Amino acid sequence: MADENILLNVAGLSAAVDEKVILHDVDLTVGAGETHVLMGPNGAGKSTLGHVVMGDPEYTVTGGKITFNGQDITDLSTDKRSHAGLFLSFQAPVEIPGVPVSSFLRAISAGRPGVGDMKGKQFRKHVKELAEELNMDPAYLDRELGVGFSGGEKKKIEMLQLLLLQPKLAILDETDSGLDVDALGVVSRGIEAYREQCDGALIVITHNTRILERLEVDRTHVMVKGHMVAEGPASLIADIDKNGFERFERQAAEMGIAGAAPAAREGADA
């Protein structure tokens, strides 16, 4: 990949929480407009990588470098990374009692080109149109952020944020987890609209393949125990769907990665 096409470059990234290292020398390169999938068993470090790239202060970078759109962002705050064009959806979106969804969306849009310059009435009209594009009831906008929302409703609001902010790179962390068919449809429409409207790049973090069925995936990455152990084309997803992560866990164990050996199957010899 030519350097000018590289949007995100993670090089030799290690990170810790409470002095325990949980990411080990991770490399990841994402080109502008590309869709990458990050897979792995539970506890692989997938979500941690997303949070570290986004600058979550709970994690400490102990080695390596994160470059985004040609800028070293390793030491930038989460807010500055967001304004630079990064977006992270959460496995468990926050609840903020007393703050209507519309007010929250207005606040996160402040200072951003285009949407941040809209007057109040124009902004509300724009947000309502985006909600309708996702087949969302505009009444959502008057509700307190996340309060009393189902998991699917919270994910719908995240898709609304995605279309509103139009980041250069969106990291979607288990966005399909626990969703019913209706909510999964909204999420899929949101991703499709995001790709069509601004040709943004995607990193989709998941351990199942439902959300991937409608995506054109460029590269697939596999993590085990905080290590990046494999990278390949989209066809790797079908292999994982059929055979699971056992061969990657075994490969990691052969590489000397602690705790990476696959669990013995029930009924198998110890």
Keywords:
Rossmann fold; single chain; four-stranded antiparallel beta sheet; 270 residues; alpha/beta; 27% strand
3D structure, described in words:
This protein has 270 residues and is an alpha/beta fold. It has a single domain, classed as Rossmann fold (3-Layer(aba) Sandwich). It contains 8 helices and 12 strands. The protein has a 6-stranded mixed sheet with strand order 6-9-10-3-11-12, with helices on both faces. A 4-stranded antiparallel sheet has the order 2-1-4-5, covered by helices on one side. The longest helix is centred in the C-terminal third of the chain and has 18 residues, at 181-198. It is globular and about 60 Å long.
Please report the number of helical segments: 8
- Quote the beta fraction: 25-35%
Q: Which shape, going by the Cα principal axes?
A: globular
CATH topology: Rossmann fold
Overall residue-averaged pLDDT value: 89
Most strands sheet? 6 strands, mixed
CATH superfamily: P-loop containing nucleotide triphosphate hydrolases
Topology at a glance:
Layout: E1 6-17, E2 20-31, E3 35-39, H1 46-54, E4 60-68, E5 71-72, H2 78-84, E6 86-89, E7 96-100, H3 101-109, H4 120-133, E8 144-145, H5 151-165, E9 169-173, H6 181-198, E10 201-205, E11 219-224, E12 227-232, H7 235-243, H8 246-254
Parallel strand pairs: 3-10, 3-11, 6-9, 9-10
Antiparallel strand pairs: 1-2, 1-4, 4-5, 7-8, 11-12
